[in-house]
Description:
The chain is mainly alpha-helical. The protein has helices spanning 3-19, 52-65, 75-82, 105-120, 125-152, 162-165, 172-202, and strands at 31-32, 38-39.
Amino acid sequence: xxxxxxxxxxxxxxxFLFLAATCPGAEKKLQPSPAGAVVSPPAxxxxxxxxxxxxxxxxHWFILYDSTVRVIGQKEANLLFESGYLPEVMVGxxxxxxxxxxxxxxxxxxxxxxxxxxSLKKASQNGFAVxxxxxxxxxxxxxxxxxxxxARYGLTGNPxxxxxxxxxxxxxxxxxxxxxxxxxxxxxxELKILGWVYHLWFGGWxxxxxxxxx
Length: 214
C-alpha cells in the first residue's frame, strides 16, 4: 500500500472507530472530570427539547468530557468558523435560520442540536434512527472527500494545524478541505450526542437491529 493510501486508511479508520461507538455492542462510557471524579452525561427528556438552557448544558458536558465532541471547543476549529467556514446543513434545520450571529462554534453547534431535538422530540424509534442514518451517510461523504485530499497532499498529524493546511494549494482546494474537515467533525459530534439521546429514549444503541440504519 502506498503512503497516501495508508494515510487515507488511517483517516477512515479513525472515523469508523467513532461510528462503532453508536453501533451494536457499544456501552455507556464514563469520562473522568478534571478533578478525577467519574461523571456521565446529564439526563435529557423529550420535555427538555424546547429548553435552550437544558440543551446548552447537555452539549457543554460533551464538549468538556467527550473526545469526539471536544474539537468543537478547540481553537483551530473555531478559527475556521470565524473565517466563515461552515458546512452546508443538509440534514435537519440550519442554525442560520435561528440566528445570524454566533459568538463561537460551540454556540452554533448547541443551536443545531436544539433544532435537531425539537424536530425529533415526537419521533418514533424508527424515525429517529432514519435521521441518524442520514447524518451518518453525510458524514461518510465528507470524510471520503477530506481523506482523499489529505492523502493526495501528504497531510500528517493534526489536519487543523496551519502547517498541515499549507500543504494544500491555496484557493478552492484548500477551501473545500477546510469545509470538509469541519463538516466531518461537526457531523460526528452531532451523531455522538444524538446517538446518546437515542439510547436514553429508546434503550439499546443506534445501529443495533435498527430499522433506520441502512
